[in-house]
Amino acid sequence: MEVGFLGLGIMGKAMALNLLSNGFRVTVWNRTLSRCEELVEHGATVGETPAAVIQKCKYTVAMLSDPSAALSVVFDEHGVLEQITEGKGYIDMSTVDAETSSKISQAITEKGGHFLEAPVSGSKKPAEDGQLVILAAGEKTLYEEVIQIFDVLGKKSFFLGSVGNGAKLKLVVNMIMGSMMNGFAEGLVLAERSGLSQQTLLDVLDLGAIANPMFRLKGPAMINSSHAPNFPLKHQQKDMRLALALGDEQAVSMPVAAAANESFKKARSLGLGEEDFSAVYEVLKASLFNATA
Ligand SMILES: NC(=O)C1=CN([C@@H]2O[C@H](COP(=O)(O)OP(=O)(O)OC[C@H]3O[C@@H](n4cnc5c(N)ncnc54)[C@H](OP(=O)(O)O)[C@@H]3O)[C@@H](O)[C@H]2O)C=CC1
Ligand SMILES: O=CC(=O)O
């Protein structure tokens, strides 16, 4: 099967490589075109624009940073809309809000194309290992046609009904994840300031009812202040912002998420947006230090 792939950041690169190593023919495009070179070494072809990729491929996947990138790739000059036609499928796996996804869906379907949103849960390593959890919504027939793609990229796919449901579920999941990360980081700082071993805290957490893969994976690096980006903090803050907007729409009070969002915003303002989202630890560490100084 020939698949187009738009967006070769941390996630997109790993996902496109996975498709190539599983026998798919892949045509890639990235805004910074030089990022396509590594994929070409692995057998990919390059499309000069999103429109060129859509023209060549029956199915095209996108993995872009945020709503503005997702919209730009579809609606701008040489974008997806210029070449989407009857029988072609567009699958946007970026994390965006339901409104963005619906706008894209409407424009694609008006031109006779087919659309799925399919944001993913799981970070760089699950993307490399084909172990993502895929939250698809939109046209069921397209979902059934591209299930071979999802089977390579993920360990489990959910079909969630109409467009917007995948985007919303992804935001709820990441709202919980971002809130947990803040609580975890505060706990690590509090343990250190109280003269306790952070490693012992990690060991105790891992043996109890709140043990989880995120604490296990991120904890050891966090206590060494190492935040090499798997999931960039700027994207986690975007997800908190979009989840809070969903909370506004639904009149759901979310004080914990709102506080977590403030910490991520602070981290961004301190230049930590490109670091892993665990770098929120540095903000909490600094503010606790200031309070006790
Ligand atoms: N990293 C992770 O752990 C996870 C990320 N996600 C979500 O997946 C998406 C991608 O994440 P990730 O790969 O980490 O992000 P990166 O920041 O590594 O990559 C972002 C991609 O979007 C492209 N891009 C940004 N702005 C534009 C624009 N205006 N027009 C066209 N292309 C643009 C970038 O192109 P360029 O190279 O030119 O900058 C790059 O290809 C995000 O929505 C994120 O929230 C979901 C699950 C896990
Ligand atoms: O969106 C991030 C993730 O780890 O999932």
TrEMBL record:
Gene Ontology molecular function: any one: glyoxylate reductase (NADPH) activity
Active-site annotation: K170
Reaction(s) catalysed (UniProt annotation): glycolate + NADP(+) = glyoxylate + NADPH + H(+); 4-hydroxybutanoate + NADP(+) = succinate semialdehyde + NADPH + H(+)
The keyword Acetylation belongs to this UniProt entry's keyword annotation: no
GO cellular component: cytosol
Regions annotated as coiled coil: none
Similarity section: Belongs to the HIBADH-related family. NP60 subfamily.
Name of this protein: Uncharacterized protein
Start and end residues of each 6-phosphogluconate dehydrogenase NADP-binding domain: 2-161
Keyword hit for Cell cycle: no
Pfam families recorded: NAD_binding_11 (PF14833), NAD_binding_2 (PF03446)
Summary of the function given for this chain in its UniProt record: Catalyzes the NADPH-dependent reduction of glyoxylate to glycolate as well as succinic semialdehyde (SSA) to gamma-hydroxybutyrate in vitro. May function in redox homeostasis and play a role in oxidative stress tolerance by detoxifying glyoxylate and SSA generated in glycolate metabolism and GABA metabolism, respectively.
Residues covered by the 3-hydroxyisobutyrate dehydrogenase-like NAD-binding domain: 164-284
Transmembrane segments annotated in the record for this chain: none
Classification via InterPro entries: 3-OH-isobutyrate_DH-rel_CS, 6-PGluconate_DH-like_C_sf, 6PGD_dom2, 6PGDH_NADP-bd, HIBADH-like_NADP-bd, HIBADH-related, HIBADH-related_NP60_sf, NAD(P)-bd_dom_sf
